[in-house]
Design brief:
The protein is an alpha+beta fold and about 70 residues long. The protein contains one helix and three strands.
Length: about 70
């Protein structure tokens, strides 16, 4: 199966949250994650909004910002 590379992760991590983005990407490279999204907000401020990979094990349908999980 194709692995998601860190440059294939979309979205953003606010300054100070770069380690969250790195850990998110690491799950694709070493933990076999197929597709996922992560959003972290604090007091109404979005600090992390990331997504990547695919919605299917065949890697045919990319995970997007609007993919429901």
């Amino acid at each position: 199966a194709a692995k998601v590379k860190s440059q294939d992760i979309s979205g953003f991590a606010a300054p100070g949250f770069e380690a969250v983005k790195a850990a998110f990407a690491e799950h694709f490279l070493n933990a076999g994650e197929v597709g996922a999204a992560l959003c972290i907000e604090r007091n109404g401020e979005r600090l992390v909004d990331l997504w990547g990979g695919h919605t299917d094990g065949a890697h045919q349908r990319p995970w997007t910002a609007d993919t429901l999980a």
